[in-house]
UniProtKB/TrEMBL annotation:
Entry similarity comment: Belongs to the D-isomer specific 2-hydroxyacid dehydrogenase family.
One function term, GO molecular function aspect: glyoxylate reductase (NADPH) activity
Residues in D-isomer specific 2-hydroxyacid dehydrogenase NAD-binding domain copies: 110-284
Annotated source species: Oceanicola granulosus (strain ATCC BAA-861 / DSM 15982 / KCTC 12143 / HTCC2516)
PANTHER family noted in UniProt: 2-HYDROXYACID DEHYDROGENASE YGL185C-RELATED, 2-HYDROXYACID DEHYDROGENASE-RELATED
Keyword Oxidoreductase included in the entry's annotation: yes
Keyword Oxidoreductase assigned: yes
Domain D-isomer specific 2-hydroxyacid dehydrogenase catalytic: 42-315
Pfam families reported in the protein's UniProt record: 2-Hacid_dh (PF00389), 2-Hacid_dh_C (PF02826)
GO cellular component labels: cytosol
Name by which UniProt lists this protein: D-isomer specific 2-hydroxyacid dehydrogenase family protein
Keywords carried by this UniProt record: NAD, NADP, Oxidoreductase
Length: 316
């Protein structure tokens, strides 16, 4: 069968209303970039926009197989899978979906922090497995209010996390590349080691990608210490994961709440053997309402590009 020709190639797992809305824009669907790269020359030659919903690396080589490509519209705020420099060099624009997911991702960070500190996974199992009746009360957990939270990366999502944790009566510390305007009483740290040394909960809300690879390294983990907890909703690459696993196993770090992993969806088997971690399958923005808003914003970018209008949320 001839490959279908269309302006818009939708790459990734589109379903339901999102898929229908892209179909209405005339999009042709591909499971991944391999399938798009393998499409016939005419089909590839027609593509002006890739509506991207995948974490596979989108590099210059695949861009070169799409000679009319003008826009990569990412479904997600994190665009670390896209080689933005390669896009820029080819005059390809990139957009993302900022802000509409801030609340959900921040909620998840706070939820994992509370779950880890209050041992909620174990509590749930304690009831389900009948241990409550057989063994009595569970071991005591840790109080959250009054503790110190450190936000590593006070960007859009980081700020929402900090605001929530302030409402939970934690003392707020943060690290960004520059000091920001914040409510009175928040403490700025010029580097992540200083932040880690000052707090109980270390919450990571950085961008991913090569510039932040291993930003949270063995030195940061050591500074956080045996009472410290890491929460990560950003990307698996920002932490030296094996250093974190070593510390969790040896009791040099109290615990972690993690939504993102290196090599996900394959997750290091060492995580599953740990009792002091809360693990989630990259669900920061995974509510029906927010995914619908992300899809709508992605399509607004696609439509603006096709109409020759200003892009609503450009990256480059
Ligand atoms: P944002 O507003 O751009 O904030 C990003 C933060 O990263 C800022 O604090 C920024 O520092 C910091 N940063 C950027 N480049 C850096 C560098 N080279 N070195 C050190 N710090 C750097 O982004 P956002 O909208 O809050 O999103 C943050 C990330 O969350 C996304 O990129 C994505 O990876 C992740 N995310 C995850 C989920 C999930 O499902 N778990 C969902 C959505 C987003 P400054 O403050 O110094 O500018």
């Amino acid at each position: 069968m001839e490959d279908e020709m269309a302006d818009v190639a939708a790459v990734g797992g589109y379903e339901g209303e999102d898929r229908a809305a892209l179909e209405a824009m005339g999009a042709v669907f591909y499971d991944d970039l391999g399938a798009l790269g393998d499409a016939g020359e005419d089909a590839r030659g027609a593509v002006r926009v890739v509506a991207y919903k995948h974490h596979q690396p989108f590099d210059g080589e695949i861009m070169d197989r799409l000679p009319q490509l003008g826009l990569i519209a990412n479904n997600g705020v994190g665009y670390d899978a896209i080689d933005v420099d390669a896009a820029k060099a080819r005059g390809v624009r990139v957009t993302n979906t900022p802000d509409v997911l801030n609340d959900d991702v921040a909620d998840l960070a706070v939820a994992m922090l509370l779950m880890q500190a209050r041992d909620l996974c174990a509590g749930d199992a304690w009831v389900r497995q009948g241990k409550w009746a057989e063994e009595g009360a569970m071991p005591l957990a840790r109080k959250v209010a009054g503790k110190r939270a450190g936000i590593c990366g006070l960007g859009r999502i980081g700020r929402e996390i900090a605001d929530r944790l302030a409402a939970f009566k934690l003392e707020i510390h943060y690290h960004s590349r520059h000091e920001k305007e914040t409510p009175a009483g928040w403490t700025y740290h010029a580097d992540p080691v200083s932040l880690a040394g000052a707090v109980d909960f270390f919450v990571i809300a950085l961008v991913g990608g090569p510039d932040t690879e291993n930003y949270v390294d063995a030195g940061v983990i050591e500074a956080l210490g045996p009472e410290g907890v890491i929460v990560n909703i950003s990307r698996g690459t920002v932490i030296d994961e094996s250093a974190m696993l070593d510390a969790l196993e040896a009791g040099r770090l109290a615990g972690a709440g993690l939504d993102v992993f290196r090599g996900e969806p394959q997750v290091d088997a060492r995580f599953a053997r740990l009792g002091n971690v809360v693990l989630q399958p990259h669900v920061g923005s995974a509510t029906g309402e927010t995914r619908a808003a992300m899809g709508a914003l992605q399509r607004r970018n696609v439509a603006a590009f096709l109409a020759g209008e200003e892009l609503p949320t450009p990256v480059v």
